What does this fold into?
Amino acid sequence: MPADGTSRPGAQEWVPPDADVERLTEAAHACRGCELWAGATQVVFSAGPPDARIALVGEQPGDREDLEGEPFVGPAGRVLGEALGAAGLSPDDVYVTNAVKHFRFEQRGKRRLHKTPDVAHIRACLPWLAAELAVVRPRVVVALGATAGRAVLGRTVRIGAERGRVLDGETVPGPGADDGYAPGVVLTTHPSALLRLRESADREAAMTALVADLAVAGEAAGR
It folds into this structure.
């Protein structure tokens, strides 16, 4: 048990073996792998075709996603949709999920403010990500932000230094015995980061970089 007294046994006992994405989604509602389920409205699993060539992995659901039960339906989702379109990719052709399936937040009056998941939350939720990517078998995984990058690559990542190129995903322990989550991994910023930029020039530059990263993933996946 962690030093704070919180029980985080991990999701493995709730993940059904040899299940498809639909069955995994159903089973995830019962998950008690960490304490985040208690404060969240519901689990938020994934969206998109289960045979997509590209899988996008974000950090965790946001407030809107927690309420609606779907990933990337809030402001960050709109940014992501625009970036995918500009990169020549259709949102309907990518599998979208998160490293952590429940919304972690801090209550401020009536508002629920995003709170970054701890490494312990990432580890506890990792069996879900491993199981779903074992089913989807994407050619490229795009990690949106540092939390997703850590979940996918199993280490601390530096988005600025490592973005924009295809990293070898087969060397990362993943759902298979001899390979990782996908042959290739592309790191990029989380689209929510763009929403925090006040200057239009900064937002435009950040969007250009995000689009470029997604285009790299699309080319590597043979879209």
Residues 10 and 124 are 4 Å apart (CA to CA).
